[in-house]
């Protein structure tokens, strides 16, 4: 799934219906792992209708832990959520900032946890101390969000950051050896058309160009631009 390695941790959740909605949100955003820490009331039958068939697999694989420490034991990076500021809650991240940090660590192969407190009071100070960073979702007038809404919003920005990271990586993907050979043949043909290569041994005089472009490790976008340049130059020469 898109957010493999990211774990949603719900601490002392009060309502099983919220757990069901969280499972649905996780399924929609590609986050497969859900852990409950000492839930106040856990009822699979009440959670299932809110999870819908899409979230049932996540609900079926949910794990329960007696405390937050055991839920986070194998995680390398932990982000806690809060609606309050000040006091113990210093240097709060915005959702987009938290998403960038989370995705960066997921890409590095780390296991990351996103921790949510009880619906009525949020994380306690002792639980906040277990988090590496804190994130808050800015609102207009409401003091807090429904638990499932908060999970959905934060997983959404994480999913967006993950997709953007993947798209950027694809856009900057290097070319293959066959691509390089194809470009060099076009580039050599362009130089010959411009009468820039002389002598009996064309390949020998072209060798510095071959070595130069091999050293540059062209990206796909650069390769496309250079191929376009070769075509344009040769078209102008023919005209």
What topology emerges from the helices and strands here?
Elements: E1 6-11, H1 16-29, E2 33-37, H2 44-60, E3 63-65, H3 68-72, E4 77-81, H4 95-107, E5 112-116, H5 125-128, E6 133-135, H6 147-171, H7 177-193, H8 202-216, H9 220-238
Parallel strand pairs: 1-2, 1-5, 2-3, 4-5, 4-6
Helix pairs in contact: 1-2, 1-6, 4-6, 7-9
Offer a quick outline of the entry:
The protein is of the alpha/beta class.
CATH H-level superfamily title of the largest domain = SPOUT methyltransferase, trefoil knot domain
Average pLDDT taken over every residue: 91
Largest sheet: 6 strands, parallel
Q: Helicity range of the residues? A: 40-55%
Element-by-element helix/strand order: EHEHEHEHEHEHHHH
**Which fold does the CATH topology of the largest domain refer to?**
Alpha/beta knot
Regions with pLDDT < 50 over 5+ consecutive residues?
none
Quaternary structure of the protein: single chain
Q: Helical element count?
A: 9
Counting structural domains, the number is 2
Structural class: alpha/beta
Radius of gyration: 27 Å
CATH class of the largest domain equals Alpha Beta
Approximately what portion of the residues adopt beta-strand conformation?
5-15%
Order the strands across the largest sheet as they lie in space. Answer: 3-2-1-5-4-6
Return the CATH architecture of the largest domain.
3-Layer(aba) Sandwich
Protein architecture, described:
It contains 9 helices and 6 strands. It is an alpha/beta fold and 239 residues long. A 6-stranded parallel beta sheet has the order 3-2-1-5-4-6. Helix 1 (16-29) packs parallel to helix 2 and helix 4 (95-107) crosses helix 6. The protein starts with 5 loop residues before the first strand and ends with a helix. The relative contact order is 0.13.
